[in-house]
Every structure is written in C-alpha cells, then in structure tokens.
Amino acid sequence: MSDCIFCKIIQKEIPSTIVYEDDDMLAFKDIHPAAPVHLLLIPKKHIASLQELSEQDAGLIGKMMLAVPKIAAQNGLQGGFKTHINTGKNGGQEVFHLHIHIMGKPA
Ligand code: AMP
Ligand code: ZN
Hints:
Number of domains: 1
Helix content: 10-25%
Number of strands: 5
Bound molecules: adenosine monophosphate, zinc ion
Strand content: 15-25%
CATH class: Alpha Beta
C-alpha cells in the first residue's frame, strides 16, 4: 500500500528504530512510547487490521505471536510485558496496518 506509513517503514522510506526483522515481520520502537519499552510488531504483508485477516494468514499470525516473547526478552522484558492490538475506528486504531503493541518496563 503506497500511502501506508508502516509499509513505508518496511521499505525503509521512513526512518524507524528497528529491533527485529525477518522475512515475514518487522519490530520497531513506537515513536510516542507509552511505556519505557514500547515496540510495534507488524507483518511485512499489508493487512489493515485483525478484521482483514484471512485463513491464509494463520501461519503468519502464528509466527508473529511466537516471536512476541522473544522480541520482548531481547529488549529487556524477560519479566513480562503487555500486548495490545487496536482494531478499527471504534477500537482506537490510528494506523491501518496490523500491529501488535509490546509494552513494558525492563526488570
Ligand atoms: P494504533 O492506535 O494502535 O493504531 O497505534 C499506532 C501507533 O503507531 C501509535 O502508538 C503511534 O505512536 C505509532 N506510530 C505512528 N507513526 C509512527 C512512526 N513513524 N514510527 C513509529 N511509531 C509510529
Ligand atoms: Zn501497510
């Protein structure tokens, strides 16, 4: 999606502080952190929100969920963390490229 800010981050057209990247996903620091550690994990495939997920994304979402605790631990959150996903306008979603917020305080 050419007008999607997170797709531009994936393409490195917009700077970000990347903390994890593989073929399927990217994690970077939230520009307005709401916690000492506040990361966003996104699929490289443009999926607008949970509401646009399809059965064929099951493997991708599974991989992302498995990556969450690893990325959290690599960023000092071995003791635990919070995750949240805003979905849709009424769910407070501002950027319409699926993202998992990973937040916490290093132990
Ligand atoms: P949401 O309300 O779940 O859509 O949250 C969007 C999040 O993206 C917010 O926490 C923003 O601070 C964050 N954000 C927006 N633009 C950028 C950017 N260029 N780099 C990093 N984080 C961003
Ligand atoms: Zn996108």
